[in-house]
Amino acid sequence: MALIFDRFSSLTNAASFAEKVKSLGRNSVIYTDAEEAANADYYPFTLLAPVVLVERTEDDDGEEEVISLVKSFEGSFAGT
Predict the structure, then answer these.
(1) What pLDDT is stored for residue 57 in this prediction?
(2) 44: burial class by Cβ within 10 Å (0-12, 13-18, 19+)?
(3) Exposure of 17 by Cβ count < 10 A (0-12 exposed, 13-18 middle, 19+ buried)?
(4) Digits of tens for pLDDT over the chain (80 positions)?
(5) Among residues 2, 3, 1, 26, which one has the least CA distance to residue 75?
(6) Where are the domains of the chain?
(7) Distance CA 38, CA 63 (A)
(8) β-pair partners for 79
(9) Interacting residues of 52 by C-beta distance below 8 A, sequence separation 6+
């Protein structure tokens, strides 16, 4: 399962968010179009690209930090 973020205003913002998340020790993957994201089969609803999937870890406390970061990169938290 992954933390799913979408609706970034630009690919640059999505990439910056993914890099910030990586600096926190979590892996992330960027999908640049909706079809590609849908084929990842993580989420049963339509996602708006660019989409960033962030690895979940056993440290659930850190998830809130990641979720709170997304607004500063002009994206939104879609779910898990």
Answers:
(1) 82
(2) exposed
(3) buried
(4) 789 999 999 999 999 999 999 999 999 999 887 677 667 666 666 778 899 989 888 867 789 999 999 999 999 999 88
(5) 3
(6) 10-69
(7) 23
(8) 4
(9) 4, 5, 6, 8, 14, 17, 18, 21, 28, 29, 30, 31, 75
SS3 state at 50: coil
Task: Supply the pLDDT for residue 77.
Answer: 95
Q: Tokens for 33, please give them.
A: 């179009």
Q: Indicate the DSSP class of residue 8.
A: -
Q: Report the DSSP pairing between strands 2-6 and 76-79.
A: antiparallel
Residue 9 in tokens: 């205003």
d(Cα 30, Cα 41) in Å, to the nearest integer?
14
| The pLDDT value given to residue 7 | 92
Cα 27 to its chain centre, rounded Å, is 10
